[in-house]
Design a protein that fits this description.
Elements (H helix, E strand, L loop, with lengths): L1 E9 L2 E8 L9 E7 L3 E9 L4 H16 L5 H11 L6 E9 L4 E7 L3 E5 L9 E3 L17 E4 L5 E5 L17 H12 L7 E8 L5
Antiparallel strand pairs: 1-2, 2-11, 3-4, 4-5, 5-6, 6-9, 7-8, 7-10, 10-11
Amino acid sequence: MSVVGPSFRLPGIIWGAASQAIAGEAISGDAYLVTRTANGVLLAVVDGLGHGKEAASAAASAVDALSADPNRGAERLIECCHHALEGTRWAVMSLALIDTAASSMTWLGVGNVTAALVRVDPSEGGVVDLLTVRGGVVGSHLPLLRSSQRELRPDDLLLFATDGISERFADNPPRAGDPYRLAAWILAEYRGSTDDDALVLAARFLGPPP
């Protein structure tokens, strides 16, 4: 298991990640990106199709495309990944753009990377808000891309998980705790099997800058 920790800080968030490659492989086809933007932070998780070196190469190509200019909108970011992944193993992915000053988030997903917003205050429309991902494959065929927006409150928790993690993790996820420890716990508790790569990224919103 690979755990990125202790948790790291960027303006407005604290985050951590944990991952594990499929049994028998030294490299994972799941990847993530957490980087600054002009207005806050971009978070993304990419799952290269299959496993091994080709899946890892596809995921790395997507991360490179996102890193080239993270200030593009969510739809444009995925379109750029789509073009970058043509001729590769392809991938599925979900991403979130957090505007720290506005305490808001734009998120979008293509394929089966689960994203869940865990509310610190359950009276705000329920405890867990799941991203509605669009069917498709980045690099092969994209659906109609339509992002959605959410308001954020300090201590709200954003979780991403690839399909090596059982979706049951979102049924009653923990709300408190250090992000990298939460990511490692979810990986340990909800790893569906060892026949797929698995990755969890957790990020807690700290509030707008002073």
